[in-house]
Amino acid sequence: MKVKTILVSQPEPKVENSPYFELEDKEKVKIDFIPFIHVEGVDAKEVRQQKVDLSKYTAIILTSRNSVDHFFRIAEEMRFKVPDSLKYFCQSEAVAYYLQKYVVYRKRKIYVGKRTFQELSPLIKKYKGEKFLLPSSDQLKPEIPETLDSLKIEWKQAVFYKTVVSDLSNLREVFYDILVFFSPSGIKSLFENFPDFKQNNTRIAVFGNSTVQAAEEHGLVVNIQAPTPETPSMTMALQKYIKLANKK
């Protein structure tokens, strides 16, 4: 069956040269972006209930832009002046770059990993004497606490924000040829919004093994998968599938 419409369960890219827009143009398909999940901050009171005193920590581990935003939001709500001496351990360059929204980069001690959390861990290990705080969501990848425990450091996780299922009721009568998912939370959102969802002729595209597992556990047939050696990105995987499906 031909592909004409695609729904990506994420916000629309803010960059003009997004590969999704190129895909739309090249393959003459319509791509809509609707986030199936969103992030909501918890309040300072809830953070205090987790026995978190920001003044007790000398280093912050930041795994995403959300963790940056919500750390500084909570600091402001608690009227805590973030000291210049605080060390920042950022999982990637993108997170470190985003940190500039809140601090003067050249005046701070910032340590940057390459991409994965495992790649950041040697930098954390170098500073074993610090007291680390990990502001995170309520859905933390298990390898992160496992890695930190293995480093034998003093650290604490605190939930500063939560991943929440979005209201998708306006999609009830809308059908797409392909639905694209990037996390088990996205799959969960689909079935929380539409418990009676039937796949029928809809193709399912997923990114990552945990998302594949979640889709299959809900009885979905996965038609498109990334990353693979041949298609390392979702847009490449979609393009490969569309070219075959839309052949005349």
Helix and strand layout, with pairings?
Layout: E1 5-8, H1 19-27, E2 30-33, E3 37-41, H2 44-49, E4 59-62, H3 65-77, E5 87-90, H4 93-98, E6 109-112, H5 117-126, E7 131-137, H6 143-150, E8 154-165, E9 178-181, H7 184-193, E10 203-207, H8 209-217, E11 222-226, H9 234-245
Parallel strand pairs: 1-2, 1-9, 4-5, 4-7, 5-6, 7-8, 9-10, 10-11
Antiparallel strand pairs: 3-8
Helix pairs in contact: 1-9, 7-8
InterPro entries: 4pyrrol_syn_uPrphyn_synt_sf (IPR036108), 4pyrrol_synth_uPrphyn_synth (IPR003754), UROS/Hem4 (IPR039793)
Organism: Aquimarina intermedia
Protein name: Uroporphyrinogen-III synthase
Folded structure, characterized:
It contains nine helices and eleven strands. It has helices spanning 19-27, 44-49, 65-77, 93-98, 117-126, 143-150, 184-193, 209-217, 234-245, and strands at 5-8, 30-33, 37-41, 59-62, 87-90, 109-112, 131-137, 154-165, 178-181, 203-207, 222-226. The strands form two sheets. The chain has a six-stranded mixed beta sheet. It has a five-stranded parallel beta sheet with strand order 2-1-9-10-11, sandwiched between helices. α6 (143-150) links the parallel β7 and β8 (154-165). The longest helix is centred in the N-terminal third of the chain and has 13 residues, at 65-77. The protein starts with a strand and ends with a helix.
